[in-house]
Amino acid sequence: MIMIIGPVGAGKTSLMNAINQNCLKTEKTQSICFDGGMIDTPGEYAQIPRFYGALMVTATQAKLVIMVQDSTNFRISLPPGFAGMFPRPVIGVITKIDVVGSDHVKAQNYLKQAGVKEPYFFVSAKSGAGITQLTNYLMERGCK
């Protein structure tokens, strides 16, 4: 089981659909959802401290946590050291790399500030760029 967390609009559900090769229309995640061996979380849970407990408890059901950062979002959305509260390994995924004006370096730095250590994966759920590398990594670790 893999848990995906990140701020509102980071592309968590689109990433989950791309990993699962699911062509369903992406809609706003309203609550924690379990689907296809993955846990999708609302962005508000990563941005509002009163929801942190729900994320920590849910993470105990996961083997790995994917923390997502939108490469077009230039605001710090995750607090420093945020990844350290999870009882599972955390990897970083930078999304929307195919969008004009995206900044991969800044997005990676935001994940570093949040406490996410390597590896980092740069992906586009829309074009499929980087999804194979991420999926292979997950399969090698028995997460998919």
Question: What can you see in these coordinates?
Answer:
The protein is α/β, with parallel strands linked by helices and 144 residues long. The chain has one domain (2-140): P-loop containing nucleotide triphosphate hydrolases (Rossmann fold, 3-Layer(aba) Sandwich), CATH 3.40.50.300. Helix content is 28%, strand content 18%. It has 5 helices and 6 strands. A 6-stranded mixed sheet has the order 2-3-1-4-5-6, with helices on both faces. A hairpin with a 2-residue loop joins β2 (33-35) and β3 (38-40). The termini are close together.
The total domain count is: 1
Q: Residue share in helices?
A: 25-40%
Q: CATH superfamily assignment? A: P-loop containing nucleotide triphosphate hydrolases
Proportion of strand residues: 15-25%
CATH class (first level) name: Alpha Beta
> How would you describe the shape?
globular
- What's the count of strands? 6
Question: What are the secondary-structure elements, in order, as H or E?
Answer: EHEEHHEEHEH
The CATH architecture name reads 3-Layer(aba) Sandwich
**Order of strands across the biggest sheet?**
2-3-1-4-5-6
The pLDDT mean sits at 92
Largest sheet, described in full?
A: 6 strands, mixed
Alpha-beta classification: alpha/beta
Number of helices: 5
CATH topology: Rossmann fold
List the helices and strands and how they pair.
Layout: E1 2-5, H1 12-19, E2 33-35, E3 38-40, H2 43-47, H3 52-59, E4 64-70, E5 90-95, H4 104-113, E6 120-122, H5 131-140
Parallel strand pairs: 1-3, 1-4, 4-5, 5-6
Antiparallel strand pairs: 2-3
